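Give me the fold.
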Amino acid sequence: MAAPVRRVLLRPLRGVLTQIPGSGVASSGCRQLSVGLRVPAVQKPNEAVLESPSPWRLLGAVFVQRRAVLSRDRSPIEKDFAELLKQTELERSLLADHELRLLEDAERVSRKQEEDYDSDEDSGQDIVTAQDLEDTWDQKLRQFKPAQRVTGSIQKQLLNSEADKKADRTCLERCLADSLVLLVKEKIGGEDVWLLPQVQWENGETLRETAERALTTLTGNSIKATFLGNAPCGVYKYRFPKEVWTESCVGAKVFFFKALLGSGDLAPNKKGSHVWVSKTELQDYLKPQYLEQVGRFMVDL
């Protein structure tokens, strides 16, 4: 009973609303539901709001390392440790075929000395024992003359080359018993700073490709190096001097990649533009925070 009464009471109001455009009430006899909520438009992918650019500039740097050319003589503790490893390996190893053959020969000789030994076991053949082989090998070893090892005064002459005497750190022919690292001088703001070779990352390339470009774009470069892996071995973040700050860039993030020098060198195009330095000499060029990051992944090979 309540429903018919409600329809009768709402009929005049319905007639008024049908005259108002946009009310959502149709003039037909069918009721329609109108919701006064605004549905947001679906955002297309190409209409996505672009994020604000990062204030940090991405750089790729290469850690080019020349391995040691000469090996130094072992220290007393290194000699003792090597002897300990050799003795441990001998004690834990299994007998080799030659050692087993020596035991078999010794057992055969002991059987020959017994009274009930049957001579038919040898079948009348001449047996070459393992000891006979050792005697033959010893004769060949006495005839072998190994190459002379560079020691004493000759080694000192090589370790103190002309480049070492001149203290020419742009030359690769120095510190032959140590690993050397390539550093280049770059101008950041109004200051000359020693850094590893680096360039800015560009769209469409990986960070390793950026590091490779940092090496190939050096002036007078004939270096051929082998990169070790596709992942960076370290990262360093630093701020630019305040005089070169901008709203869109306040500093840089440098991603380091390791590479081993194969051949080639940098041509001396400008005095003091590059140096090859050892691990102990890095502190003469790099700033402390930068040196701390580089020292984390520098290993003498």
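The first helix runs from residue 2 to 18.
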